Amino acid sequence: MFNRGKGKKSEFVQDNRRFYMANMSHEIRTPMNAIMGIANMLLGQVKDPEEREYLSDMQTATRNLLMTINSILDYESMLDGNISINSAPFEISELINDVTSIARINIGEKNVHFLVDADPGLPSILKGDATRIKQVLVHLLSNADKFTREGVIKLSVTGKADEDTCKVTFQVSDTGKGMSEDIIKRIFLPYEQENASASRDEGGLGIGLTIGKALVERMDGRINVESEEGVGTTFSFTLSLPIICATEACTINAPEEKYVALFIPEKEDQAVAARLLKKLGVPYVILSNIGEIFVESGKKKFTHLFLEHSKFMQVKDVSELRDLGITFVDFVDSTKEVVYDRNTVYAKKPIWYKNVADVFNGEGITGETGKVETKETITITGARALIVDDNDINLKVSQGLLKPYGLAIDTAGSAAEGIRLINKTKYDIIFMDHMMPGMDGVEATKAIRGYDDAYHRSVPIIALSANTIEGVEALFKSAGMNDFLPKPVETALLEACLKKWLPPEKVTVTTVEFTQELEATGRKFGGFKHIDVTTGLGYTNGNAEMYTSLIKDFSATIQEKKDTINKLSEGEDIGRFTIEVHALKSTSKMLGALSLSEKALELERLGHKRNLEAIHDKLPSLNEEIDKVILDLQPLGKKEDAPVKKKPVDRDAVRQSLRSLYYAADDFDYDGAKEIITGLGVYNFDDSLEKVYDKMQTTIEDIDYEGTRLAAAEMLAML
User: Fold this and answer.
1) Mapped to the 3 state alphabet, what secondary structure does 70-137 carry?
2) Fewer beta carbons under 10 A from the terminal one: N or C of the chain?
C-alpha cells in the first residue's frame, strides 16, 4: 500500500511538474512569438539593409531563445522517455542557412573565424526532423563557441547517397581549449561542465549535449566526439535520411563560363572557397598578391574577383583593375560594411554554396540602401529634346534617362519622322541614333544641316551609337554632329553632355543629398541563367522600375526580332540585316544578356564585311543564344487574366485613388502608381473614363510619370 501510495504521489508530482513547465513555456512563448511577428512585419516595410540585418538578427535571436526553452522541456521529456521525432520533407539548404544565422549571432564579433563547408551536391530535399537536427547542431555550435575564444569554428555537412537514402554527416569542429579524456567520458551527462565555474564563465544550462545525444539516438544515429587539450574538439553524427528530391542542393548557371581570381589571404576562408568552386565546376586561380591578376588575365579572361572586405577596400578604386571588366565579389561580415559600387556584388560571410551561387546566378546584393550621400546634379527648365531611334527599347531607355532632369521629350522612330518633327518644332537638343533602316543618323544630320537657316545649322545633334570603333566619332563630327554618346548611355556622360550643349540659362547645377536605392535588386529578377541583372541595372542607373519595363518589352519582341534576322539573312538586303543585329547587340547588352550581345556583334562585323557564307555559318549560334534568353524570359510571358467581375464606380473612392496616384507619379513611385492603377481596374467605367484608364496603364508601363499625372488629373475632372 505504501509503495503504491508513494508511486501515486510520484506520478502526481511529475504531472504537476509537467503542467508547470508547459504553463511556463506558454507564458514565455507568447511574447517571443509576438516579437518574431513584429520583426517579420517590419522586414516587409524596411528597406535599409543595416536595419533589415538588425531585424533579421532579432528574429534569429528569438528563435534561439525559443530553442533554449525547448531544451528545458526536452530534458523533462527525456527523463520520462518521451522525446518525439517528427519526420517531414525539408530543404537541406534552408536547414544549413538557419543554423548558420544563429551561429553568426552567437559568435558575434569574437576573434573567431566561422566557416561552413557544405557539399553543394547534397540532395536538395530530404525527409527527417529538421527542427531536431537544427537543435542538435545549435547545441554543438554553442558548445564550440563557449570554449573557443579565438581561432576557427567550422560546420561541415557532407553526404553519400544511394537510390533512396542519403547518409548525411554533420560535423562541428573548433580550435578551442579541447578536453581531457576524463571530461570526454562525462561530457554527455546532464549539468556536467568542464569545471564548477564553467556556467558562469561560458554560460549555458549544461544539458545541451545531453539532449543532443538523446535526439541523435532517437533519429537512429550516434554522436561521436574527438578532442585534445589545447588543440580543439570535433563532434559529429551521421543520419540516414530518405531522399525526396535528388536534384543537387546547389547548381549554378554555366560554371565553365566563369573564371574566378581568388584573393582571400585568410587561409581557412580561402580553402573553403577553393574547395567549393572546385565542387561547383568553376575554374579559379588563387592569387598570393593582387598584381598576379594582370599576369593571369592574359591567359584567360576573368569573370569574377573574390575579395576579402579589407582587400576590396584597398583595391576597389584601382583603375587598372576596373579596366579588366571583372565583377568584384566582396565578402563582408555585415551589411554595415557594404558601400555602393556598381561593379561589385556583396556576399555575407561565411562563404558557403548558397551565397556563392547567389553571386553567380545574379541574386547577390548589388548595392546599399539608406546611406545618405551627396552628388552634383542638374535641373533643366524650359528645354525640349528630340530622340530619334528606330528601336522602341532604346527610345524608352533614353526617355527614362532624360525625364528626371525636367526636359520635355518627343520621340521619332525613323530619321524621316525626326526631320518632319524638327521642321515643325524648335528643339534645344537632338539625340540621333546612327544605324537606322532607310536614312541613317549620319545622312539625317547632313540633311538637317543642309537647310539654310540658323536653327537647322546650329541645333545641337548628339550621336547615339553602340559603335565605338576608332574613327566613328570623326565620321559623326564630319557629318555635322556636335557630340557622341556611346550606347548603353552612362549617366555621368549624359549629364556632361546636357550641361555642355543646352543653353546655360535653362540648366541649374545643384548639390543634393540622395539615398541609394540599389538594395538586393537582383533578387527581384532571380532565376535568370543567361542575363546578368547587375549589368542591366547598371545601365539603367539602378532604376529597377525602368529595368522591369525594358525586360518585359524585350521578352515581348525577341522572337519577332529573331524571325526578322533569320529572314533577312536569306535575302540580299545585307545592310538591313546588319542594322538588325546591331540593334540586338545594343539592347541585349543593355539588359545584361552579354553572351547574346557578343554573338550579335560577331554577326554585325560579318555584315559590314558582306560575308554571307560566314553569316550563315554563325547564325545558328546566335539563334541558340536567343532561344536560351527566350527560355529565361518565359515566366514574364503574358498570362490570360481570369475574368474580373466589374463593380459600379464609387466616385469618392476613385477620386481618393486618383489623388494618391497623382502624388505617387509625382514621386516617381512606379510600384505605388502601378498598384493604384491595377486597383482601379475593378470599376465598370463608361467609355470615356475607360479610355483615360487605358491611357494610364500605357503611361505607367512606359514609365511616363508626367503622362500618368495628367491622366489622373483628367479623370478627376471627369468625375
Assistant:
1) HHHHHHHHHHCCCCCCCCEEEEHHHHHHHHHHHHHHHHCCCEEEEEEEECCCCEEEEEECHHHHHHHH
2) N
Would you state the cell numbers that stand for residue 669, as one nine-digit string? 513611385
Q: What pLDDT, in 10s, does the model give residues 93-136?
A: 989 988 998 888 777 767 888 999 999 999 999 999 998 899 89
The stretches in the chain having pLDDT less than 50 are: 1-10, 12-13, 26, 191, 193-205, 368-372, 513-524, 526, 638-642
The dihedral formed by the CA atoms of 696, 702, 708 and 710, expressed in degrees to the nearest 10: -100
Contact in structure between 700 and 673 (CB atoms under 8 Å): yes
Give the integer Cα–Cα distance in Å for 123 and 406.
54
Whole-number pLDDT of residue 36: 59
CA 574 to CA 580: how far, in whole Å? 10
CA distance 43 to 63: 16
Q: Taking the alpha carbons of 241, 244, 249, 254 in that order, is the dihedral positive or negative?
A: positive
Instruction: Look at residue 37 in the predicted model and tell me its pLDDT.
Output: 55
Dihedral sign computed on CA atoms, order 478, 479, 480, 486: negative
**Torsions phi, psi of 430, nearest 5?**
-125, 130
d(CA 142, CA 145): 5
- Say how many C-beta atoms besides its own lie within 10 A of residue 186's C-beta: 11
Q: Which amino acid is at 550?
A: L
Long-range contacts of 294-298 (CB under 8 A, 24+ apart): 294/320, 294/324, 296/261, 297/261, 297/324
Report cis status (omega within 30 of 0) of the bond before 504: no
Q: Tell me the C-alpha distance between 389 and 444, whole Å.
A: 12
d(CA 265, CA 274): 12
Q: Sketch out the chain's domains with CATH numbers.
A: 1-82 (1.10.287), 84-249 (3.30.565.10), 255-365 (3.40.50.2300), 385-517 (3.40.50.2300), 544-636 (1.20.120.160), 651-718 (no CATH)
* Torsion of the alpha carbons at 341, 347, 349 and 350, rounded to the nearest 10: -150
The 10 Å Cβ neighbour count of residue 558 is 21
Instruction: State residue 372's pLDDT score.
Output: 46
Nearest to 83 by CA among 216, 186, 222: 216
List phi, psi (to 5°) of 374: -125, 150
Give pLDDT, residue 272: 92
Instruction: Output the CA angle 175-177-183, nearest 5 degrees.
Output: 120
Q: Which residue has the cell 530530404?
A: 126
pLDDT at 240 (0 to 100):
96
**All three cell numbers of 196:** 564548477
